[in-house]
Structures are given as structure tokens and as C-alpha cells.
Amino acid sequence: MLLRHTPKEIVERSALTVNPAKTCQPIGAMYAALGIHKCLPHSHGSQGCCAYHRSALTRHYKEPVMAGTSSFTEGASVFGGQANLLEAIQNIFTIYQPDVIAVHTTCLSETIGDDISQITGKAQEEGKIPAGKYVIRASTPSYVGSHVTGFANMVKGMVEVFSGASDEKEDQINVIPGFVEPSDMAEVKRITREMGIQAVAFPDTSEVLNTPQTGRYEMYPKGGTTIPELKSTGRSRHTLALGQLASGPAAKLLDAKCKVPCTLLNLPIGLRNTDIFIETLRQVTGASVPEALRLERGQLLDVITDMHQYFYGKKVALAGDPDHLVALTQFLKDLDMDVRHVLTGTPGKKFVNRIAEITGPNVNAYEAKDMLYFHQLIKNEPVDLILGNTYAKYIARDEDIPLVRTGFPIYDRIGHQYFPLFGYQGGLRFLERILNALMDRQDRDAPEETFELVM
Ligand code: SF4
User: Fold this and answer.
1) What is the pTM of this model?
2) Which of 252, 269, 287, 369 could link 327 by a cystine bridge, Cβ 3.0 to 4.6 Å?
3) Does ligand 1 come within 6 angstroms of the Cβ of 52?
4) Cα-to-centroid distance, 371 and ligand 1 (Å)
């Protein structure tokens, strides 16, 4: 058993992380950049970083992920990577012809202090950026924050470059869906379409990282937010930012830069959070809620009511990213489940308070902690169910606890790219998955005399 050595006794560790519950900033920045149509992400650092970030995304989405790299060697590491980036920008526009290059930094280029905005300014001056093409940038040092911070920084970079202030507003809103699956981004668009709302969702990786097999490789698939759409975000009437950490900074910048007011919401996961999302859409646009969405809501409510006895009082431990954990905790709490441990590797002081506001003070909620700590929490207070990414499977196996995979990364299952967690339908599928895990366990463990056909 891989993690059998995890000690039950918890000792304070201040300078050692064992199995981080997060990954590095550029992965989030790269993912966000892929949500722009015809955008090539570019990693300003060594080839190894870029290879790791690409492979992490490819393993999770099961799609090829293209990105350029400044390919630092010893020279660039000592003297700076300006020459590498200038050459890369010219080569990429000439050979791969994207509309946008999205440059993010790495630990190395941040540590040596490369100034990306100065370098891209020089590229502009030297005519290395063709007319109508763009270079956006984000500072993503991995020794602070996490992949969620990197995502947020790159989305902010989109607003910095593309969103322009205007007194002429358009009859549209912006929705920033957060660091979520392509299927969730598609669900946001479907819900706004159902309500007859004109919305710009950015970034949008639907039909980029869940593309159909056509037999032909497309370097730039048809999905992604287009440049005209990104430019129009400054003329929208309102911004809904889903997930405070991943989407909040860009929404606030849009407000400050272009006077587009914003509302920060939880991710629309589960009945209550989806209700709030749809009600906010209704309030800011005046649209009414169509019968199709009422039907979906009613179906979710029906399953919650019918199956409540299987959820009631079940102890759950969750590990993942803050925006997901807040929304999932609310959903589980509304099902009358007993949320015991909630842990994220992403730093952020408000996280613990937000969880405690939902569950009450008796929860074990932690930010900036690792998976070893999560395992120790479970050893000290066992649970009936674990929600977490693929890395949680070692703990689930060692402790013999069912695991429902959620969040990022999920390397060993499929479905997250295609079936949303968002919305009433996403909630319904998520309930089904939790229920299957709990009922399969009940069947497995039931003695002969209580092994029932109808549970
Ligand atoms: S060096 Fe930094 S950016 Fe590169 S893979 Fe490691 S943590 Fe990520």
C-alpha cells in the first residue's frame, strides 16, 4: 500500500510539503490561454517546465496541448531571456500563425527578474508582432499561489490587453466561468442561451479541449473566445465572476478599467448555487427563466428529496481548489451530509472562514496544506466518502473509502470534459455519482441478511 507509512499523529511542519494539494501557476495560465480562439500559450522559461505543464493538461483533457517555450539554457538563465523571447515571438507568428501569443513566466524567469512587459514592448517596437496580432502576458511564479492563481493572472492579462473602456454599452454581459472544465463553460453558455441572454464567456475552452475526432488535426480548434468578443467585454453592462479566486481579479479589473460593474458568485454547483447564478442573471438582464430550466431544477430537487436518506449524516472529506470546495461544501451541506475535512493547497486566508460559514465552526478546514495532512485528518477522523482529484486515490485505497473524483487533475478517468458539474443537470449527475459510490459501498459491505434488492 503506497501511503501506509502516513503517520496518524500530526506534528507541526513548517518547511516541508509532502504531496502538494496544488500544482504550479503556469498550468493555470496555460489553460486560461487555451480559452482564447487561435491563441498559442508560451512558457518563458526552460523546456522542462513547459513539457510538464503541457503533459499535465494533456493527461487531464486527453487532448494535445500546444505551447511554445523560450527554451532557457545556461546563458539565458544567467543573462536573462530577452533574446530568447524576442526570437520566439517572431518565430511563432511566422510559423504557427496564431492570433494571440499568451506569455507566462516560470520560477526561473521570475527569479532572474525578466520584465515581460518591457520585452513584449520591444518586440512591438521592432515589428515582431504583426498588425492585428497580440501578445498578452501574465506573471506566474510558482513559489507563490497555485495553478488557480496562474489562471486568475492570465485572465487578468486578457482584460489588460483587450478590454477597452467605452460610454457606448452593448446589450450583453460578461461571464467569467473560472478554472473549470470545458463542459462547465459550455453549460454556462447553454444556460444564458436558454434565457435569451447575450453573453461573452471568457476564457472558454469548450470545443478546444473536448473536440470531436474528425481524423484531422486542428492546431487551433473552433472553440475559444474570439478577439472581437474579448474587446467587447469593456462595453458589456455587467460581469458575473464565477469563483472568487479564479475569476474575481479579472472582474474587478474590468470594473476599475472599463466601469463594468461585477458580481462575484460561487461556482454554480448544486441547487442553491445554481439558483443564485440564474437569479443573478435574471436580475442583471431582466430575462425570465424558461420552462426548460425550471424542469431541470425540479428534477434535481426531486432526486434530492427521493434519495435524502442515503446522504443524510454521511461524513465527507474534500480536497481540491478553493472555488470548487466552497461550492461543493455548500451542495453537500444542503444534502445534510456531514462535511468533516476540507483542504486546499492554494493559499488564501478567507477560505477557512468561508467554509466555516457554510458548515459551522466544527469543520477541519485548511488552506495551503498538503495531501499528507489530508490523509492524517482522515486517519484521525474517518469519513464515508472522499471527494478529490486523482491523487486522492492513494488515500482512498489505503483507508478503504469510496472516492468520487472532482477537480483538477483527473488523470485516470474520463467524463469531466464532457459532462458538466455546473447547473441543475451537472448537479444531477454529481448526485448520481455520489449516490452510486455510497450505495455500491453499502452493497459491498452488507451482511447476507441485510443485502437488499431495493435499498
Ligand atoms: S520550476 Fe516552477 S514553473 Fe517550472 S515546473 Fe517547477 S514549479 Fe512549475
Assistant:
1) 0.97
2) 269
3) yes
4) 19
Residue with cell 495531501: 371
Residues 6+ apart with CB under 8 A from 226: 36, 37
**Residue of minimum CA distance from atom 3 in ligand 1:** 106
Buried b (16+ CB within 10 A) or exposed e, 195-230: bebebbbbbbbbbbbbbeeeeeeeebbebbbbbebb
278 lines ligand 1 (CB under 6 A): no
**In the chain, where are the structural domains located?**
25-162, 173-290, 307-421
| Separation between Cα atoms, residue 251 and residue 249, nearest integer Å | 6
Specify the CATH number of the domain 25-162: 3.40.50.1980
Q: Which residues contact 260 (CB under 8 A, 6 or more apart)?
A: 163, 174, 233, 234, 236, 237, 238, 239, 254
Domains 25-162 and 173-290 fall in the same CATH topology: yes
User: Which CATH number does 173-290 carry?
Assistant: 3.40.50.1980
Class of domain 307-421: alpha beta
- Give the SS3 label for residue 106: coil
Does the CB atom of residue 26 touch ligand 1 within 6 A?
Answer: yes
Q: Which residue matches cell numbers 434488492? A: 453
